Amino acid sequence: MAGFDQLLNGFLNSLTVVNLTACFIGALVGTLVGVLPGLGPTVTMALMLPFTLKYGPITGLIMMTGVWYGAMYGGSTTSILVNIPGEAASVMTCLDGYQMSKKGRAGAALALVAAGSFIAGTIGILGLQFFAPLLGNAALSFGPPEYLAFMIFAFVLLSNLSGEVPLKGALMLFLGLFVSVIGLNPLDSYPRFTFGWDELMMGIDFLPIAMGLFGISEILNIAIEKYAPPEVRKVRLRELYPTREETRRSVLPIFRGSILGFFVGLLPGPCTVISTFVSYALEKRISKNPQEFGTGAVEGVVAPEAANNSAVMGAMVPLLTLGIPFAAPSAVMLAGLRMHNIEPGPTLFTTRPDIFWTFIAAMYLGNLMLLILNLPLVSFFGKIAVIRPPIILPAISLICLFGVYSVRNSIFDVWIMIVAGGIGFFLRRWKFPIAPLIIGIVLGPTTENSVRQTLMMFRGNLLLITGRPIAMVLLGLAAAFLVYKFVSPYFGKKIVLKGEERG
Amino acid sequence: MKKLKRFSPETAVECLLTFLGLVIMIVSLAYGFGTLRRPGPGLYPFFIGLFLSVFSAALLVLNSKPKDRPALFVLEGKKTFLLMMGVFCLWILLMPLLGYVVVTLLATYAFCKIMKLEGWGKPISLSAGTALFIYLLFDYWLYIDLPKGFWG
Fold first, then answer.
1. pLDDT digits (tens, 9 = 90+) for A248-283
2. pLDDT of residue A41
3. Does the first or last residue of chain B, that is N or C, have fewer Cβ atoms within 10 Å of its Cβ?
4. pLDDT score for A500
5. Which residues 72-111 of B have a C-beta within 8 angstroms of A?
6. Read out DSSP for B69-103?
7. pTM: predicted TM-score of the whole model, two decimal places
């Protein structure tokens, strides 16, 4: 009952004008970002960080999750109407969504996706509401060795799932960890890799790097590509009604996608993208008519979309309970919470339960808002999707420049963003995954703390970790994953879950 | 038949990362490695450098086979990339001198032209709209102290 009381309190806290407005703006901007090819949720969330500073951490968290959530909703619109995924997690929706559209069923597909996303979001929130406090309580017994083992486990999975070549993922992760080392060491105030440069003493801020790697590099990427205007299919409001058969075929895939997506969301890496691949593959495998997939099967549209929405909530679990982000957008959220002097982790539920429960309540409201927002405005979002890059990109470039400058009034940060943007452009071209780099930067200080504290705790004898069962299980899982990865090609099996989450 | 290449700019980056890893290791040693019982400030970055150089060297070896390496961009793309980067750098250099309104107008117009937005009406209205939006959002609403330049 205590949880229910806290949830009610959360609803009371979230029903303020500021929080509801933040939720609405986040959801609307997120949907636009999902619709527009170019910007992704990560960079938009990073862009919104300065605006959240004026209000409290709860408002900031609500707004940022609204963006992430909205992007998942919005991404499906362009996939179905123009066969262009607004963001990476909607790639699978193109396969059958556009085919449905060609058959004149675009309205039904959009309506079912919106309803499915709403159900998935609600299931995801219920999962977060149930699992987060449980894991948070369990994590209270975590010491530095367990945190270190958890980091190693997360890093192994992240490197392997984030790109086509695991070595590239690992390389990016260590590059991120190195960037986090630059500046004064918080433990002994020793300046490292600053080379006498005053600007580097406080370290390289996360925000300009994230904006550069995800925002500027994407702008450069789109600017040099040739633009082919897509053809948009018009959808009328009365066409939004699905047939009874379509509804019947959608129910179970929505529930399966929601549950699967939530658990995939708990994994490190581009969870929203992976969840859509897994969910689509599952539906195709268990379908009585697998030959229909790719020709407009409604199951192939609703299941991946449900999965990516509930994966967003799954990804919130490790962030809120352990303070460890597993995906690039949650890394931005962690950076945002730290800007408000909030450190998520197991103690969050005892020290600031209001943050968690208000966030949960706001997510229920946000989910409802997105449902109301998306269906009537489908035609509007369809029109937005075909705005030419030369019209939208100059304004976005300028907002990125001012957004980064405004955080610390620092021209140095803007330089960092431009350099990171240039580097990110080439990294993308050579298929180096960006997400591990960002997560490496955010998790660097926590990792170093865990390493140092573990070494001091064990007086330099790392073998003592064998006496810590949780740490050993986590290390064992990481080792098992690596062994499987190396051995599986010899047995004709291969892990195919991969995909870079676009910012 | 396509010509297979052993080296590409990507190879150079892998070499650079291997070198960076080695530099990190050397500099970390200078910071003081400490002992495992009492780690010094250089211990953690030393291992980062070690892993970085080992992984990039491994990647270098794996990618050393001659293969088809497509060009990064066509000539037109290279020009666009350089111009865009140039405008970004000029924005940073000129903002303290000319103030944020003027550089926003100029940069937006330049971006529109680089991305081949036809005519002058649309680019000018877009520039004015962006400058107004930046003023309303950052200056008026968020009270950010933006450089006014000569006019301020």
1. 999 999 999 999 999 888 877 777 888 888 899 889
2. 80
3. N
4. 47
5. 72-73, 76-77, 80-81, 84-85, 88-89, 91-92, 95-96, 100, 104, 107-108, 111
6. ---S--HHHHHHHHHHHHHHHHHHHHHHHH-HHHH
7. 0.83
How far is the C-alpha of B79 from the C-alpha of A248, rounded, in Å?
54
Find all residues with CB under 8 Å of A500, minimum gap 6, and list them: A88, A162, A163, A270, A273, A431, A433, A434, A435
Q: Quick one: which of A150, A94, A135 has its CA closest to A443?
A: A150
Mean pLDDT of A94-108: 84
**Cβ atoms within 10 Å of A472's Cβ, excluding its own:** 15
Domain ranges of chain A: 17-491
In Å, how far are A57, A89, A204 from A50, measured between CA atoms?
12, 26, 17
Between the alpha carbon of residue A169 and those of residues A228, A236, A255, A500, B19, the distances in Å are: 32, 44, 32, 10, 18
d(CA A30, CA A202): 32
Q: Give the length of chain B.
A: 152
Tell whether B63 is within 8 A of chain A (Cβ).
no
CB pairs under 8 A between A and B: 152
Q: What is the complex's ipTM, to 2 decimals?
A: 0.91
Token code pair at residue A238? 């009365």
Distance CA A499, CA A71 (A): 17
Which residues contact residue B137 at a Cβ distance below 8 angstroms, ignoring those fewer than 6 apart? A402
Q: How confident is the model at residue A205 (pLDDT cuts 50, 70, 90)?
A: confident
Q: Is B133 on the interface with A (CB under 8 A)?
A: yes
Question: What burial letters (b/e) apply to A138-164, b meaning 16+ CB within 10 Å?
Answer: ebeebebbbbbbbbbbbbbbbbbbbbe
Q: Angle CA(A386)–CA(A388)–CA(A393) in degrees, nearest 5?
A: 125
Of the pLDDT bands very low, low, confident and very high (cuts 50, 70, 90), residue A236 is: low
Q: Can you give the residue ranges of every domain in chain B?
A: 9-62, 75-151
